[in-house]
Specification:
The complex is a heterodimer of chains A (421) and B (92).
Chain A: E1 5-11, E2 23-27, H1 54-61, E3 65-70, H2 104-112, E4 117-122, H3 128-134, E5 137-140, E6 160-165, H4 168-178, H5 197-200, E7 209-213, H6 222-237, E8 241-245, H7 253-268, H8 287-298, H9 301-314, H10 319-341, E9 346-350, H11 366-371, H12 377-381, E10 386-394, E11 397-404, H13 410-418
Parallel strand pairs in A: 2-3, 2-4, 7-8, 7-9
Antiparallel strand pairs in A: 1-3, 4-6, 5-6, 5-10, 9-11, 10-11
Helix pairs in contact in A: 2-3, 7-9, 7-10
Chain B: H1 8-17, H2 24-41, H3 71-75, E1 81-82, E2 85-86
Antiparallel strand pairs in B: 1-2
Helix pairs in contact in B: 1-2
The chains are: A alpha/beta (421), B mainly alpha (92).
Region (Disordered) (chain A): 78-106, 182-204
Biased composition (Basic and acidic residues) (chain A): 182-192
Subunit structure (chain A): Heterotrimer of A, B and C subunits.
């Protein structure tokens, strides 16, 4: 079995539809009726959902065949796919390196040709980072474009399900299938705008104004910057105008993101108590001792770290200092993006400030790994759409370029991204 | 530096609130890491006051009966059941 998958399947979709004949990998935090859905965690090693996520129903109806449940960082918490309880996934585009995370299995399945398409989820970069590291395309939709019904929650105010594919137009076709309102997710937008996303992949960037936030470029690795700058020159040669823009609010985005994501995680993961589903400890003891032992055995170290830090940030005496301040930073970031996106059509930056890490290289220092999310997390805090598209290599390792658009401006970023192919 | 250093006692306290049993070596590691991570979070103090973003609107649906999982389906993943119910540990 390919190491991109936790479980292999062969679930045929409808006979005709826009995805007929296509194979698709589904990230293992998206519920599939009758097929175990582990979230990359020993806690859910044997969990078999009794229902399908809305996006799974939609890809089935569109004719796609689900070929596997893709490996991921445990509960989506990671940037490398190394925190999965089944172990790491190798990067098909850069063997010996991580595929990025947390949707690393989804990106690796597409890069290796194990699936034509994949679904991932993006809470702070978890679609865009693996897309960049594996040399494929990934889209994080505007918050509210795609139903989260059946997505097992990590930080629900930040996350969206989105497509990964070899090309912009294939990713956009999959977005056409999964986007749109769902009465089972009240945060989906009733009217997200008319027109096909696939048709927007027209290769045209002529006349577009692209803002380049200095804060998201200056910290990047030299080789990443060179690849990014040559991609920008290609867009300029095709008729785009570029201009430097100032986004001071992103300086605190990583800290704000982790406070909010960990706080939401501490609440969302409180449900794992070994009573209704999931791992249950054999240890004796009362209610509290039994839950604590079950959770100790079921969760890996990164998940425990985030639950505990989130509990700390929400606890009496610290709520105002951490959680309230992080929400204030989120408001600032939203307004800062709105301001610059009133002046330019899209924003461009390297997706990741660094090329893919070597397998095993980065697990010891959690804070250093969190800081690698600097370019992706501001987009989730601002609820905006973004795409990562391949932009060459540095020393043989893939580099991704990220384009960010205004809310529900997926067609604009898809159009600009397709000009890089 | 953070004004109050993170202690082992703090880590054990939040672990108890979150119902996660920790081994001694995990407590040691988390104490050091939390000090460093919470120190980084202090930079949020530099965030300026801004107007709250647009108020969000509640989305409500009519409170009508609809299909749900059968009791059998709902119990399928439970480690222990008794007479069609979930079975949890003793309360005390």
């Amino acid at each position: 079995m390919s190491d991109a998958f936790i479980t292999e399947t062969e679930l045929d979709g409808a006979e005709d539809g826009v995805l007929a004949g296509k194979t698709i990998a589904i990230k293992d935090n998206i519920s599939t009726e009758g097929v175990r859905t582990t979230c990359g965690s020993a806690m859910l090693e044997d969990y078999v959902p009794p229902y399908d996520a809305t996006v799974v129903e939609r890809v089935h109806e569109a004719g796609a065949t689900i070929v596997g449940k893709a490996n991921m960082d445990e509960f989506g918490m990671g940037t490398t796919t190394e925190t999965s309880f089944v172990g790491p996934t190798d990067n098909p585009a850069a063997p010996g390196h991580v595929p990025g995370g947390s949707s690393g299995g989804s990106a690796a399945a597409v890069a290796a040709g194990d699936a034509d398409l994949a679904l991932g989820s993006d809470t702070g970069g978890s679609i865009r980072c693996p897309a960049a590291f594996c040399g494929v395309v990934g889209i994080k939709p505007t918050y509210g474009l795609v139903s989260r019904y059946g997505l097992i929650a990590y930080a629900n105010s930040l996350e969206q399900i989105g497509p990964l594919a070899p090309t912009v137009s294939e990713a956009a076709s999959l977005l056409d299938v999964i986007a749109g309102p769902d009465d089972r997710d009240a945060t989906t937008r009733a009217d997200p705008g008319e027109g096909s996303y696939a048709d927007a992949a027209d290769g045209s960037v002529d006349g577009m104004t692209i803002g380049v936030p200095t804060q998201l470029v200056e910290g990047a690795d030299k080789g990443v910057r060179e690849a990014f700058e040559s991609a920008i020159e290609s867009l300029e040669a095709q008729g785009a105008t570029t201009t430097e823009v100032d986004l001071p609010s992103v300086e605190q985005a990583v800290e704000a993101y982790y406070v909010i994501a960990m706080s939401e995680a501490s609440s969302n993961l409180a449900r794992y108590d070994g009573v209704r589903y999931g791992h249950k400890s054999d240890a004796d003891g009362n209610w509290n001792e039994s839950f604590a032992q079950t959770r100790s055995e079921g969760f890996g170290e990164e998940v425990k770290r985030r639950i505990l830090l989130g509990t700390y940030a929400l606890s009496a005496g610290y709520h105002d200092k951490y959680y309230a301040k992080a929400q204030q930073a989120r408001d600032w970031i939203k307004q800062d993006f709105d301001r610059v996106l009133a002046e330019v059509d899209v924003l461009a930056s390297p997706t990741m400030p660094v090329p893919p890490f070597e397998l095993g290289e980065s697990l010891d220092d959690p804070l250093a790994l969190y800081l690698a999310d600097a370019n992706t997390v501001p987009v989730n805090l601002a609820d905006l759409p973004a795409i990562s598209v391949p932009a060459g290599e540095t020393d043989g390792l893939p580099v991704g370029l990220q384009l960010v658009g205004p809310a529900f401006g997926e067609r604009t970023i898809i159009s600009a991204a397709s000009a890089l192919e | 530096m953070s004004e109050d250093a993170v202690t082992e006692k703090d880590v054990r306290h939040v672990a108890s609130l979150a119902r996660v049993a920790l081994a001694d070596d995990e407590v040691d590691r988390f104490t050091t890491q939390f000090e460093e991570i919470l120190d980084a979070f202090e930079t949020l103090e530099e965030v300026p006051s801004v107007d709250r973003s647009a108020e969000l609107t509640n989305v409500l649906r009519p409170d009508e009966k609809r299909d749900s999982l059968s009791p059998e389906e709902a119990l399928e993943n439970a480690p222990e059941t008794e007479e069609g119910r979930f079975k949890g540990p003793n309360v005390s």
